[in-house]
Amino acid sequence: MTTIHPDQLTAQRLAGVIPGRLPDRPLDPVTGDGTLIDDPAVRAPLVLGGHSFGEVTDIICGYTENKPPRWWLPVFLLSANVAGLGGLFILYLVITGIGTWGLSNQVDWAWDITNFVFWIGIGHAGTLISAILCLLKQKWRTSINRSAEAMTIFAVICAATFPGIHIGRQWMAWMLFPIPNYNAIWPNFRSPLLWDVFAVSTYGTVSLLFWFMGMIPDFATLRDRADRRLRANPQGGPSVLPFVPVRADRLRALIYGFLSLGWRFSGRHWHRYEAAYLILAGISTPLVLSVHSIVSFDFATSILPGWHTTIFPPYFVAGAIFGGFAMVLMLLIPARELYPHMKDFITLRHLENMSKVILTTGMIVGFAYSMEFFIAWYGGNVYELFAFENRAFGPYWWAYWTMISCNVISPQLFWFRRCRTSPVIIFLVSLAVTIGMWFERFVIIVTSLHRAFLPSEWHMFHPSLVDIAIFVGSCGVFLMLFCLFLRFLPVFAMAELKAVMPQASPHAHGHDHAHPSRASVVGAHGDRRGDAPGDPNGHPAPPPPTGGH
Amino acid sequence: MTQLDQCPSTMKGEKHKPGKADLAAVPRDVSADLTRSAGTVNGQAAWRSVDELADDAGFRDFLEREFPAGASELRLAEEADGADAASGGGATRRDFLRVMGASIALAGAATVPGCRRPNHTIMTYSRVVPEEIIPGKPLYYATSMPRPDGGAEGLLVETHEGRPTKLEGNPLHPVSAGKISSWALSSILGLYDPDRLKFPTYANPTRGRIEATWDDFRTWAGGNLSAFATNGGAGLAFVVDKRQSPAWRAVTARLRARFPNAAWVPYGPGECAASIEGTRLAFGRSMREVPTITKEGTRVVLSLDREFLSREPGELPNQRNFAATRLVLGPSDSMSRLYCVESGFSLTGGQADHRLRLAPSRVAAFAVALAGYLLPKLGAPDAGGLFGALGATMPEGNAARRFMQECADDLLAPENRGKSLILAGESQPPAVHALVAAMNAALGNIGVSVVYHPLSEDEAADSLAGLGRLAAAMRAGEVDTLVCVGTNPVYDAPGDLDFAELFAAVPRTITLSVDRNETEAASTWSLNAAHYLESWGDTEAIDGTVAPVQPMIAPLYEPALSELEFLAMLAEPDPTASVDGFALVGAAWRAAYPDTSASGGFDRTWRRALHDGVVPGTARRPEAPTVDQGAVARAIGAMRLPEAPSADRLEACFVVGNVGDGRYANIPWLQELPEVGTRTVWDNPALLSPATAKALGLEPAGYSEGDPSAIYTKPKYPQARLATITIDGRTVTAPVWILPGMADWTVQLTLGYGRTVAGRVGDGVGVNVYPLRGSAMGGTNRAAWGATVARAEGSYMIASTQNHWSMEGRTSIVRAVDLPAFQRHGAEVQVVMDHFYGTRANINFAERLGELGHTPPTKSIYDNPFNRSDADPDPANVDEGNRDYRGNPTPPAYTQRPQWGMTIDQTTCTGCGVCTIACYSENNIPVVGKKEVAKGREMSWIRVDRYFTGDVHDPASMLHQPVACVHCENAPCETVCPVNATVHGPDGLNYMTYNRCIGTRYCANNCPYKVRRFNFFDYGVAKFNGDYLGHDLIDKVGAFIPGQEGITGSGAHNTINPNLIPPRLREKIDEISKMQKNPDVTVRSRGVMEKCSYCIQRINAAKVECKLADIKGPDGRTIVPDGFFTTACAQACPSGAISFGDILDEASEVFNRRSNARSYALLGYLNTRPRTTHMVRVMNPNPKLVDAARRHSWDDPFHHAPAAHGDGHEGGGAGHADDDHGGGVGKDREAPGGDAGHGPASFRYDRRKLIEDRGYAGSLRVLSAPGGAAT
């Protein structure tokens, strides 16, 4: 069997110099799919498969234009049903009262805020990838940033649900907003819960803008392709649904046309786009740090042992990135298996990189866990120490040790290259990390509350059916939205992706093959012609060498 | 607040709930329907006109066929007479109703007049507004309540527009003195009980139970009772509530004169029979023993299984007087000492300085031994062979022997001679009571700390013996007609009488009752009585003080007769003649108190009595009879005590719990009031000591020391084992729970539960243990020997408000010291300097016992304008820096009067829970039911925390700590509320704004005291245990869910927790129940947080009144003088442990107590600056009965655990089973080596044990030594 090695041949093939595809790759034990190159002299390719620009356009647009894979509908229906069921339970909750949860006067928060913090944390990977990695010019982000940002939006939607429904009078939630009123009653600006409202809404808004703005060129591509098909066949094309005499392409042209906000691939558009992208990345970067810091203030500013901890902000941010990357991996690993050619864009190198992030942040989190204990002991406050000992050895010991094994122990597998390059193991570890991060919040919230200051008020928390159903429902919402994303939106940022392909490099032809992606440093400028509506075959010309050196 | 929707349209929809319309149509046969529909029959207006509702043509036709000829003619004639009703005297009740109906229509429901005038004219506010009434301002009327166990309480009733809403103690009544018991407090719910009997029902032999009217009954009685007029009542029997008063005596005398041959049984299942019989033995006549504890005259009290602080007729004066002897405000104050020998763990035991747990029969043996030791030493004459009868026995066991000797020596000490008191409890045979009287006489206590009042024949009668005689007559078929008045013998008769069967066999039975009960349900005639708040009458307290019972409102379900009126009616030859309680009382008083007054005459006396609530000068002169030692010797000689109890021969003691003898079972406040010791609610589990439960295999699920892993698989809610308890062949299956400090091999059973016909609250709550009682149980009806307890299949959910038993080593929560330590160090003030931060604080004695004695004072790096502390500038200094939000110069906050605050004295607090009930009553706090309590959702604003200290098998003490919102100056709740719903007021209150609250519950999470209560459901506006749409379907589904029965506290009604039903589908609270609500306090909707407000409605009312009265302080500002008003809890607290007032008023009690050396801030180290401070509990142990380590701790109480005798030997209790106070300082108590001064010793804990703690029941293990065995 051919071992693929980053030799000249491979580099040439990857650069498209030598025609012919890579075979449907038997993975190499050393380099995996070819991206796991250790040789510092060789820059690993970011896109595999030797696709031309047109092929990339075809593949990615095909995800939305072609019939979905067979698994899509069942998964979507299942998750939509779960989401709907969760919605019904939320309805029941609102109608009947918070008492349908398992809360008590002693443990006043449990799954509700656990879920809130959990989902908010999930969202962090998206912003980190889109903002910080963008600013740091990490090219590998281009394959995953769109789906990570989508995931962020969906996670924020799930997260924002919980503060909204966890209050006793949900119909009065508007009182949280600083609405001018003639009684001059303002929200309490000292309350971290209010800061949460601002932080989460800012975060959600910026993330949404970022996500949407990035999709505009891709919407335009989709619009143009639909338009092109319509022109070719004004009467034809598939119907939207059986017996509905609306042509899908007409709908696509309409909707994507609306969403693309008049994008015409002009140079001026690109220029503005680039500038705006950079600005949004700059705005988002502090948000990555601020949102979860503020969420952690919910606990850190209280006086409860186990909550009142100054380490919380960094520890929560690290935990959020940790959990967020795990969720990205949990979504993308199945997707790249199920969608054609997706493995060419999301390579093992991507997975490995994300695994490394998980390993790093996992250890930060583990360090934080141990520091909590150390400070509790070092601080000399016996009640504080009790709170932490109670976490580990009290009635909820199982939650604590679930958290430790999932969050601290399981990522240690990623010290081993084999583990961090095996999608199955990565998936399993990510699953464990996701579970562990949920339990982390549960442990912080419930074990601190259930053993507060007066032993007379020590009380256990037991979740009710409604608690569980609403959480599962939020998972359904998340998955359902992600399915819709995969089906209807451009899953990859096509323009950016092309910019990291070998063809984007002005030196791609022949010489300088040792640095096939060097040109990609420049940025995404190159695909205008390739995707021009006038070029129905989509075979691109090499991008114009507009990038500066 | 949509939940408080007052819109008529929604009300209308609500009224057409299933069941009501049907009932209103033709419910001729209601027996089957009665369970569910009787409670719903009252619509919005039906509470006044229910019989009109049924008064349709079909019903009249039926009645004509049903009743003797002429009955209907009489009714018709009566109605025809209605035309001239306006002429005055001829008015019948039906006419009255008709007028009333018109009045309602005219006036609207909101202005229904309530108070019945003496002259019986009814006027509405729409016609004439009475002069003294200002709408919105309550009026207070004096009345009184007969206690179910004898005696009475004087009450003041708060009425709003004629609607009584809250009961308070009458300050002028010598027994109440402004205080009130939980029974009296909650009897207001008996008035507004939606399940009350609303109309008579008749058990038709062919057609089942049918609705009827009082006229029907009178007609029936005229025919059926006339036979007895000729034979003097042979075959007639009366079982009447035990009570005494002039009017009662007059009426019953007339009745008994008319029926001299009738059987007459004064009956009270919870009465104090043994004590009365004991006085008969000792003095030759039945008397009531009344302790007269005084600070000067009572230095040592020995209680022999006597719960004299609660659940007995003299509980109010006893609590008040005993607290007076325990009040220590300065180091020079003295304090009484309480020894307690008891079988359970009672409030009294919790107060004891020394406590010995013994089975009831061993207590009796202890008493005999004590007398044998004490009497000869007193030099008392050995008359009648008493000394010989006593023998020279000693209590078994070293601890008991030492306890007895030291206690006796203490009683004999010269300074205590004639200043002591020995009391015996109801579990003790009469001979022991007689012996105790002899000891009191010998000690010179009689006339000083205990007096005796003569009793009438009725009061002295032994209820159970009387009922036994009646049962024998019934068995012999000699009883033809049985009349039960205010009694419920079908439910609470002793088990050996088979009373229910006998009752069913009596041809004619008549029961008059306010509420539904088993007896009326089984009677031929069930008659609705008027509540005591609806009727005229009088009462006689234990000291003989006579007080009037005035109606506060016309009978809600008119026509209704009070017990007095009913008996008077039967005493008349013509039962159709009208009776009038007003006239009865007037006549009786006129006879009893002849007009001797020089000025005014009887009318003046009468008016004065009605105004004051007492008849002046009626208190009897107490008697100090002499003891007949020979009779006592004979009684002691005849007393046969069983052998010491063992595994197959347990002893049982019966106690009266929160619901009394069962008559308060349908009162939800009392059901939800945690029981003493266990803090369980909505249940009466049989109680065993931990060792006994372990030996019998009856430890609660999850509390098996042999199988620690079971704790994690334990069910969601605490589960009790079920056990069959057998006494004399009578068996009851009951859940078994453990109570530390119980005597071993003793089972404590609580009476009054397990009602089957009580209403939607009380039905099916707990287990009826009356069947275990025999009618003659060795002279006392509260204890039995030879019981067996065997494990039965199954388990039973227990709901408790407190899942942890100990302080888990956090001894700074309830700080407790011994009196010598306080005397030696109470005046010291420690100055805590922190040189690093340059802060300085003065720490008083109490604070030195806690964390602050060991930590630098908390000093904020920011200037807090709201702080007023030693470290802050002089608050009186108005500098330019302090400006209000408009920029005007203003003094610093919290420096202007009034500044409200509260102190709670943990020494005098007995943990009785009256404060909780008073708060429920004042603040419209809803009850939530058993399952909600089990989830930790009880709504009480003031709770009483209970902690045991010491060994689980023999706890050193039971500490009580009432905790309500402490109104922190630095309130953690306020900063975290995102919507500003909880904010601080200028007078130091932590306000809770319900309208603004959206229910994030963040405040509750951040509250270190956990006093905030969240409305998880529509508790306040949904009907408790009410019906809901789809009931049958959900019942079927719910039946599949295991362990659901009885979860709402009432197994008879719902199989699921009805709170889980969406509120729109649920029945709303009855209109009648709404009448109890305090109109000055919002009823909270679901989804909002609530908590103690320091009764802000009272504060504001007082401020307004003072402003109007122009009461000004020295600075010209309006002030509220101390004592002008107080909070509901402080007002009710029988021992006066709670003080409330202006903490800037240096003359106020609260100022004095706050600045007392015993005052400390609970969790004060958090710098919350609570406005409610607690006062250190002081105990007064006998120095000879404590070990050396404890004595040494008196010299330095700060560096050994303050409660070293308590939690101190958590680690080492096993070895001290024989040592009454354990081995002293446990190893975990040792201060860290080398740090003699400021180690955190006072709040150190044993980490190993804390971690071991696993919540419910498992926390007992924290207390216990491993493998503690049954003794």
Q: What's the structural blueprint in terms of helices and strands?
A:
The complex is a heterodimer of chains A (549) and B (1271).
Chain A: H1 8-14, H2 53-65, H3 72-96, H4 111-122, H5 124-135, H6 141-166, H7 192-232, H8 248-259, H9 267-300, H10 312-338, H11 342-345, H12 348-378, H13 382-393, H14 397-409, H15 417-420, H16 423-449, H17 465-488, H18 494-499
Helix pairs in contact in A: 3-17, 4-6, 4-10, 4-16, 5-6, 5-9, 5-10, 6-7, 6-10, 6-17, 7-8, 7-9, 9-10, 10-12, 10-16, 12-13, 13-14, 13-16, 14-16
Chain B: H1 8-15, H2 20-25, H3 34-37, H4 46-53, H5 57-66, H6 71-81, H7 93-107, E1 139-146, E2 152-160, E3 163-169, H8 182-191, E4 201-204, E5 208-211, H9 214-224, H10 226-231, E6 236-241, H11 246-258, E7 263-267, H12 273-283, E8 287-291, E9 300-304, H13 315-326, E10 337-342, H14 347-351, E11 354-357, H15 360-378, H16 386-390, H17 398-412, E12 420-424, H18 430-443, E13 450-454, H19 457-460, H20 463-475, E14 481-485, H21 489-492, H22 499-505, E15 508-513, H23 518-522, E16 525-528, E17 537-540, E18 546-549, H24 563-571, H25 581-592, H26 602-612, H27 629-638, E19 650-656, H28 668-671, E20 680-681, E21 686-688, H29 690-695, E22 719-727, E23 730-738, E24 746-751, E25 783-797, E26 799-800, E27 816-818, H30 819-825, E28 830-834, E29 839-843, H31 845-848, E30 900-905, H32 914-923, H33 930-934, E31 943-950, E32 955-963, H34 972-976, E33 982-984, E34 990-992, H35 1002-1006, E35 1013-1014, H36 1031-1038, H37 1071-1074, E36 1089-1090, H38 1096-1109, H39 1128-1132, E37 1138-1142, H40 1149-1154, E38 1159-1160, E39 1172-1175, E40 1177-1179, ...
Parallel strand pairs in B: 6-7, 6-14, 9-10, 9-12, 10-11, 14-15, 15-16, 19-24, 21-23, 27-40, 30-39
Antiparallel strand pairs in B: 1-2, 2-3, 4-5, 4-16, 8-13, 17-18, 19-25, 20-26, 22-23, 22-25, 28-29, 30-37, 31-32, 33-34, 35-36, 38-39
Helix pairs in contact in B: 11-24, 11-25, 12-18, 15-17, 15-18, 18-27
